[in-house]
Amino acid sequence: MTSAAALLGLLATAAAAAPEAPLRVGSKAFTESVILGELATQLATSGGAPAVHRRALGGTRVLWEALRRGDIDLYPDYTGTLAREVLAARAPLDDAELRGALAAQGVAISRSLGFEDRYAIGVRREVAARLGLARLSELAAHPELRLGLTNEFLDRADGWPALRERYGLRPRSVRGLEHDLAYGAIAAGEIDATDVYTTDPQIVRLDLVLLDDDRGVFPDYRAVFVYREDLARRAPAALATVRRLEGRLSAAEMIALNARVQLDRRPAEEVAAELLRDAFGIAPRFSVERAPTRILHRTREHLELVAAALLAAIAVAVPLGVLAARRPRAGQVVLAAVGVVQTIPSLALLVFMIPLLGIGGGPAVAALFLYGLLPIVRNTHAGLTGIAPELRESALALGISPGARLRTIELPLAAPAVLAGVKTSAVITVGTATLGALVGAGGYGQPILTGVRLASVPLILEGAIPAALLALAVEAAFDLVERAVVPAGLRPARRARGGGRQA
Question: What is the pTM (predicted TM-score) of this model?
Answer without folding.
Answer: 0.78
